[in-house]
């Protein structure tokens, strides 16, 4: 009766569902949580402040087709993310740019002279093998120690030398004064929130949404032709090759009786305290209130799967599962859990669009 | 695989689901809308104000067991509803009490002398047949004209003499100064809203919730033992005896840049304008904001089924369906649509509790 059973109601699953529904396919989405929107879920908390349940989510993309697609379902608040990082008692822009250096060292570099600085500190002689090498090849050991070492250890409980170079490669080093966290052409927050946008995406007569249900409990009950699976790939195969490791997070939410707690949406704490960062949601959402909610993030090893841990060993384990997945007929694995890969929202939407193009 | 299929995710269905789940039964709720909570659904609108989508809902009951049951899933804001009605350019308390009379007529009655007034105006000689008789037997023709005739006509597009006496019997006439709309012992609004309370009720591993799905589209697909049906009873039987008439509503929501729009939660307009009443949600929810959302209600004949129309003819039609329902094995009809009867929230919860007691 259903053409597609989609496991997971995050952006991957919902994008597939919408596109399939528009092609006349009947779709059932099964989601084990009690809400739609996956990790992009936002909601009004008990103090009436719009918060992101699974950590702050900022949408940014260079893919016009992704921006245009989502813009069918939401207007945007044209927000551009800014992050400060707390180093030696000072708040400095992150990623590192000219101002970061000048504030930290009391220097006066400009865009003509900053090259001299980076040239002086960076290590040119190394063969980049891991996340530590990646950083010191660009900014040397001192900035590595201040900005990256502690943060990475908190976040992964691993030192950068134990992690793939891609982990730190994602964060640029700037030769200008651009203090935006991302430099993608399209950036914003859905004007009424992610959940609202995703609700609009789901608003189609060919889509049914089954919440609070693990797909394994109903897959034999429901007739369907094909499956799109956005859950953890190891769970699909009953962990036959062992569990794929994930890094998890604990989110500590706090509402304060003040208009604003900090000057920007996110402040990183690489070296102080146990949390990695503090986010204040009103900066993201633009909501007005005389209260404000902040969120501290603590990394931990057990719990909900958030970040695939990018080590060589884990990649090899994933490849075993991937091989099994390839053999299956009519089952497609996508999304950050289906592919065991940290992926931003825009990329999961893009990959979902490509998948549907390919199979329908 | 499911012990129960429950049609409708309003308070009737959810109460049954929770009680069954706690008895170890596996339950699937099917809901055609894209949200839980039925007509009690509340949500934060685009201006960040918590509103009731299907008109203002105030919880009030004299049943301790109902209050205690729901209190497992929510704390309460101890709100007591107050309504004013706009008569001859004045705002007076509704239901009619001593102050209503004194403001309207410039008199000085007190609880010792108010009997004289009602005795003078009420019609003692009539045999109460309909909703008009009911009122004039208590307060006479003039107050009937001012408070009831216009409101009833707007609300039902019928004159009170065309409606069952129960319609106006629900509204008391007070011999004291109690200006609360309800006088039940337990009154309140779920502290974080109805949707949040109902989400907590649903939070049980034996409950699955299928949204955006008409039960007819999946009932043959899913294995279940028994059904609890809280949708419209005539739809269940494919309207074989004809459609049961409902009165519908159009809700007009408006957000204003002011702290409060009116002094109380609800003001009735029996004679002026086309809407029946204006509700300002912040009075109900206690939310603080420098904006406020108000809702005007317009009654209409077509649309979502809200109020069963209490006429003799409709009761007879309903009885035909009820007879069919009785014959069925393992299907139970409850709730305001299943029983074609206007029922307050507390009563649907009570009836659901009784049903589960009876069948399990
Ligand atoms: C802390 C944090 C911050 C982030 N910030 C950003 C950001 O700022 N910008 C950005 O672009 N991206 C960000 N991301 C990434 C973003 O969250 C992902 O790109 C996105 O959530 C992926 O969508 P998805 O649909 O693949 O997965 P998900 O959103 O995780 O959805 C998968 C769904 O499948 C469900 N599921 C799993 N197993 C089962 C099962 N057995 N049965 C039924 N359902 C199941 C899960 O409950 C989940 O709801 C962030 C991620 C994290 C962890
Ligand atoms: C304007 C208004 C104001 C009210 N104010 C109050 C108040 O102040 N206090 C109070 O106590 N009560 C109030 N009520 C009454 C209250 O709304 C009801 O008591 C309550 O909603 C009944 O719950 P229910 O579960 O029986 O029905 P509902 O809440 O209507 O739930 C039934 C559900 O079944 C779903 N459904 C129908 N057909 C199908 C189908 N074919 N397949 C799948 N799903 C289906 C519907 O979409 C709906 O969500 C008010 C009612 C209205 C209309």
UniProtKB/TrEMBL annotation, chains A, B:
Residues 146-342 form the UDP-galactopyranose mutase C-terminal domain. Its cofactor is FAD. It comes from the Bacteria. Keywords: FAD, Flavoprotein, Isomerase. GO terms for cellular component: cytosol. Gene3D superfamilies: NAD(P)-binding Rossmann-like Domain (3.40.50.720). It holds the Pfam family NAD_binding_8. InterPro entries: UDP-GALP_mutase, UDP-GalPyranose_mutase_C. GO terms for molecular function: flavin adenine dinucleotide binding; UDP-galactopyranose mutase activity. The keyword Flavoprotein applies. The keyword DNA repair does not apply. Belongs to the UDP-galactopyranose/dTDP-fucopyranose mutase family. This is UDP-galactopyranose mutase.
């Amino acid at each position: 009766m259903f053409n597609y059973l989609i496991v997971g109601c995050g952006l991957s699953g919902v994008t597939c569902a919408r596109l399939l529904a528009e092609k006349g396919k009947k779709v059932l989405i099964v989601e084990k949580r009690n809400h739609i929107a996956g990790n992009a879920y936002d909601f009004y908390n008990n103090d009436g402040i719009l918060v992101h349940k699974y950590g702050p989510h900022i949408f940014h993309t260079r893919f016009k087709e992704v921006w245009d697609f989502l813009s069918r379902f939401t207007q945007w608040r044209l927000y551009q993310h800014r992050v400060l990082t707390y180093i030696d008692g000072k708040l400095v822009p992150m990623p590192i740019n000219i101002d970061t250096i000048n504030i930290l060292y009391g220097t006066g570099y400009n865009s003509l002279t900053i090259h001299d600085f980076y040239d002086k500190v960076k290590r040119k002689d190394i063969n980049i093998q891991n996340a530590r090498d990646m950083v010191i090849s660009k900014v040397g050991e001192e900035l590595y120690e201040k900005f990256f070492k502690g943060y990475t250890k908190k976040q992964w409980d691993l030192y950068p030398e134990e992690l793939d170079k891609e982990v730190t490669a994602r964060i640029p080093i700037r030769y200008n004064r651009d203090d935006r966290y991302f430099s993608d052409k399209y950036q914003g927050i859905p004007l009424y929130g992610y959940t609202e946008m995703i609700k609009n995406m789901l608003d189609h007569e060919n889509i049914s949404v089954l919440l609070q249900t693990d797909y394994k409990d109903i897959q034999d009950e429901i007739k369907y032709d094909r499956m799109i699976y956005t859950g953890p790939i190891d769970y699909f195969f009953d962990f036959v090759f062992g569990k794929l490791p994930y890094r998890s997070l604990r989110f500590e939410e706090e509402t304060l009786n003040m208009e604003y707690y900090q000057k920007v949406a996110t402040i990183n704490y690489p070296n102080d305290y146990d949390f990695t960062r503090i986010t204040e949601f009103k900066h993201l959402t633009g909501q007005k209130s005389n209260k404000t909610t902040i969120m501290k993030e603590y990394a931990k090893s057990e719990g909900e799967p958030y970040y695939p841990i990018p080590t060589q060993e884990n990649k090899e384990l994933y490849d075993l599962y991937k091989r099994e997945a390839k053999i299956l007929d009519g089952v497609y694995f996508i999304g950050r859990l289906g592919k065991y890969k940290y992926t931003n929202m825009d990329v999961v939407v893009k990959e979902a669009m490509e998948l549907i193009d390919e199979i329908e």
